[in-house]
From TrEMBL:
Keywords: CBS domain, Repeat, Signal. This is 5'-AMP-activated protein kinase, regulatory gamma subunit. The lineage of its organism: Eukaryota, Metazoa, Spiralia, Lophotrochozoa, Platyhelminthes. GO terms for molecular function: AMP binding; protein kinase binding; protein kinase regulator activity. AMPK is a heterotrimer of an alpha catalytic subunit (PRKAA1 or PRKAA2), a beta (PRKAB1 or PRKAB2) and a gamma non-catalytic subunits (PRKAG1, PRKAG2 or PRKAG3). Interacts with FNIP1 and FNIP2. Residues 1-15 form the signal peptide. InterPro entries: AMPK_gamma/SDS23_families, CBS_dom, CBS_dom_sf. The keyword Transport does not apply. One of its GO terms (cellular component) is nucleotide-activated protein kinase complex.
Length: 362
C-alpha cells in the first residue's frame, strides 16, 4: 500500500525558495551547462579540410603546404613511431624565423633545409611533450578547459577507436556553435551586460602595441615573449591604425620575403592596404558594448571574401584611442567558469524533501 507523506508548509517554503534560487542560477549559467551537455561531435562539420604532414618533410615545404591549402595548422605524423606527435602552427613558423634570424640580411639556411623532426628535436618541450587532443565524445566544457589550460588556439579531435583525426577545434568554432543555438537557451543576463560591467578583456597598459616603423623581427619576438596572437599598431598618439597578427606572418612565405625581417611592419602590411575588400580594417568595439554584440561581430567576421578570421576585437574609445583588447579566449574562459552553487542548491532541495518526508511520516 502507498502511504501518504506529510510535508510541513515551512519545509515546502524553504524548498521552493532554494529551488527558485537554483533556477535563477541555472539561467545565469546557462552557457556553462550548454557546454557541459554538448559534445565535440555535435559541432563537427559535414565537410572540412584537414592537413596531415609527415615529420620528415622540410619546414619550408610544410609551411607552404599550409599557405597553399589556406589553413593555419596541420597535424604531424611520425612514421617511425606510427603515431601523431604534434601540431604545426604559425607559432612554429615564427619560432623558426626568429631562431634563424641573422643581424645582416642573408638566406635562412635552417628554414630551407631542416626537417620538421629536426626542428622539433631542438626544443625539449616540443620533443618530449605528447600530443594533447580530445575525442568526439568529450564535452565542449572539457575541450574548452583543455584549450584554456594549455593556452592553445587549436585542439585536435581524434577518434579513440581507429585513431583517425577528425577535426581541429578552435575557440571560434565553439563560440559560433553557442551563438547559433543561443535562442534555444534561457536568456542570460550576461549577454546584455557590457564588457566593462563583466570586466572582460585586457586593458592598457597590459596590452602590447607596436609602431608602424617597428621591424618585423621585433614584432615576431614580441609574439613569442608575451604569447599573444596579435599586436595593435598605433601612432604617436596611441591611436589604432592597423593590426599585425600572427596570421600575417604567412605573407612572408607568400611574398618570399622571410629573409627581409628588417622590413617595417608598415611595409609588411602594404598588401592589406591595397586589398581592403579582402583584408578590412581591424574590428573594434567600445567597452560599453554588450557581450552579445561583441560575440556576433566576431562570429560573423570572415564570412564574405575576407581572408582574415577575426579572433579578437580591439577596444577603443570614441576618439579611436586604444583602451584594450577582448579575445575569444577571454570570452570562452568567462563562460566555462564554475557556477557558484548550482549543484549544491540542487542537492539541498533533494535533501530537504527527504528529511521532511522521513521526519513527518506517520
Amino acid at each position: 500500500t502507498v502511504r501518504p507523506v506529510l510535508v510541513s508548509l515551512s519545509s515546502l517554503s524553504v524548498c521552493f525558495r532554494v529551488l527558485l534560487k537554483f533556477l535563477a542560477e541555472l539561467k545565469q549559467n546557462a552557457f556553462f551547462y550548454f557546454f557541459k551537455h554538448h559534445t565535440c561531435y555535435d559541432l563537427l562539420p559535414a565537410s572540412a579540410k584537414l592537413v596531415i604532414l609527415d615529420t620528415e618533410l622540410r619546414i619550408k615545404k610544410a609551411f607552404y603546404a599550409l599557405v597553399f591549402n589556406n589553413v593555419r595548422s596541420a597535424i604531424l605524423w611520425d612514421s617511425s613511431q606510427q603515431t601523431f606527435v604534434g601540431i604545426l602552427t604559425i607559432t612554429d613558423f615564427i619560432k623558426v624565423l626568429v631562431n634563424n634570424f641573422k643581424p645582416k640580411p642573408c638566406r635562412m639556411g635552417g628554414f630551407e633545409t631542416e626537417t620538421i623532426s629536426e626542428w622539433r628535436s631542438l626544443d625539449p618541450k616540443t620533443a618530449h611533450h605528447p600530443l594533447v587532443y580530445t575525442s568526439p565524445e568529450s564535452s565542449l566544457l572539457e575541450a574548452a578547459r583543455l584549450l584554456i589550460k594549455h593556452r592553445f588556439h587549436r585542439l585536435p579531435i581524434i577518434d579513440p577507436v581507429f585513431g583517425n583525426p577528425l577535426h581541429i577545434l578552435t575557440h571560434k568554432r565553439i563560440l559560433k556553435y553557442l551563438y547559433l543555438n543561443r535562442y534555444k537557451l534561457p536568456q542570460s543576463t550576461q549577454m546584455s551586460q557590457t564588457l566593462d560591467e563583466l570586466r572582460l578583456g585586457t586593458y592598457v597598459p597590459s596590452v602590447h602595441v607596436i609602431r608602424p616603423e617597428t621591424p618585423i623581427i621585433d614584432a615576431l619576438r614580441l609574439f613569442l615573449i608575451h604569447n599573444v596572437s596579435c599586436l595593435p599598431v598605433v601612432d604617436a598618439n596611441n591611436r589604432l591604425t592597423e593590426l599585425y597578427a600572427k596570421f600575417d606572418v604567412f605573407n612572408l612565405a607568400v611574398t618570399r620575403s622571410y629573409n627581409e625581417l628588417h622590413m617595417s611592419v608598415h611595409d609588411a602590411l602594404a598588401f592589406h592596404r591595397h586589398n581592403r575588400e579582402r583584408y578590412p580594417q581591424p574590428l573594434t568595439c567600445l567597452k560599453t558594448d554588450k557581450l552579445e554584440s561583441v560575440i556576433e561581430r566576431v562570429v560573423k567576421s570572415g564570412v564574405s571574401l575576407c581572408f582574415t578570421h577575426v579572433h579578437r576585437l580591439i577596444i577603443v574609445d570614441k576618439q579611436h584611442l586604444i583602451e584594450g583588447l577582448i579575445s575569444l579566449s577571454d570570452i570562452l574562459k568567462f563562460f566555462i567558469s564554475d557556477p557558484p552553487s548550482n549543484e549544491l542548491a540542487s542537492q539541498t532541495v533533494s535533501g530537504l524533501i527527504v528529511r521532511s518526508s522521513s521526519s513527518l511520516r506517520p
